[in-house]
Write a structure and sequence with these properties.
Layout lengths: L6 H9 L6 H13 L4 H18 L4 H16 L13 E6 L6 H13 L5 E5 L5 H13 L3 E3 L8 H15 L3 E5 L7 H16 L4 E9 L3 H7 L1 H6 L4 E5 L8 H10 L3 E5 L7 E3 L2 H9 L1
Parallel strand pairs: 1-4, 1-5, 2-3, 2-4, 5-6, 6-7
Antiparallel strand pairs: 7-8
Length: 289
């Protein structure tokens, strides 16, 4: 089986050479495009690095590697990845199109929180899909969270969200995570429903975060699919799933700069513990090597 392409490996060969030459710049451009940075960011990064190499009059590839790390880290760090979860209960709405891994992400997020000593309740407010509730219940259990299910078929999602927050308030639970539908018959209907959920929750308490789940493997297409959520749902943070290896690592920077919304969590595997907080320095180290 062929070894999967990774940015750090592609760069490793380039930085192992004795000097910086025209081939270096061509290879760097190809590597960044290959890692899904997109043409605009790739061009900006390469131009900036050319200017830095000229300014410091260096021909050492190790200097270029350090400059690349610093450049990417600086651009990623313009956005604050801190999760705002100080309210009690802190209510988190999770939004996104179907198929991005929203249900599994909620289970992993619950695990992320419970292993840090927080109590969690999950609300199954995606009542549009019959299987969604059972899937969510399974993942909530794996994540160590309580769950609030609809009390009848096709229950109004806003009332499930209300009951979830009510449960958190009554039981002194730290964090309430509310799942929401990823698809209805019309986008307008979906956004109206999300608006209703928000209004109902805000009668009880403030909403701490609205997290949009994006699938790294769909790249820029995934962002286009999620534009309605970005425009109408008041998204406060992004969760990037399926970021296995560094083949799609550039998407992280591209999506932050395209949306203006910080990445707060990244998922890099299938296991319950494979969702982590986003730290630009650590991420760039893994990406560039």
């Amino acid at each position: 089986m062929a070894e999967r392409w990774s940015l750090s490996r592609a760069l490793g060969g380039m930085f192992a050479r004795k000097t910086i030459d025209d081939t270096t710049w061509d290879d760097l451009e190809d590597a960044l495009i290959g890692a899904d940075f997109g043409p605009d960011i790739t061009e900006q990064v390469v131009e900036h690095l050319r200017a830095e190499v000229e300014r410091f009059r260096t021909t050492d590839p190790e200097d270029l590697k350090r400059m690349l790390r610093e450049t990417l880290e600086e651009r990623l760090a313009k956005y604050d990845p801190t999760l705002r979860l100080t309210a009690r209960p802190a209510v988190v709405l999770v939004v996104g199109v179907n198929g991005v891994g929203k249900t599994t992400t909620i289970g992993k997020f619950a695990h992320f929180l419970t292993t840090r000593g927080r109590s969690v309740v999950v609300g199954a407010a995606d009542t549009f899909r019959a299987a969604a509730v059972e899937q969510l219940a399974t993942w909530a259990q794996r994540g160590g969270a309580a769950i609030v299910r609809p009390q009848q078929e096709r229950q109004d999602p806003a009332s499930v969200a209300f009951q979830t927050v009510e449960r958190a308030l009554a039981d002194g639970i730290d964090i309430a995570i509310v799942d929401t539908a990823g698809r209805l018959h019309t986008k307008g209907g979906l956004m109206d429903e999300l608006g209703k959920i928000k209004r109902v929750v805000e009668k009880q308490t403030e909403i701490a975060e609205v997290l949009l789940v994006l699938d790294a493997t769909t790249g820029q297409n995934g962002v286009a699919q999620a534009e309605a959520f970005i425009e109408h749902a008041g998204v406060t943070g992004l969760v990037i799933t399926k970021l296995d290896g560094s083949a799609k690592g550039g998407f992280v920077l591209a999506v932050q700069e395209r949306t203006g919304i910080p990445i707060k969590l990244i998922g890099q595997g299938e296991g319950i513990g494979d969702l982590t907080g986003f730290t630009p320095h650590v991420f760039v180290q893994g990406l560039v090597g």
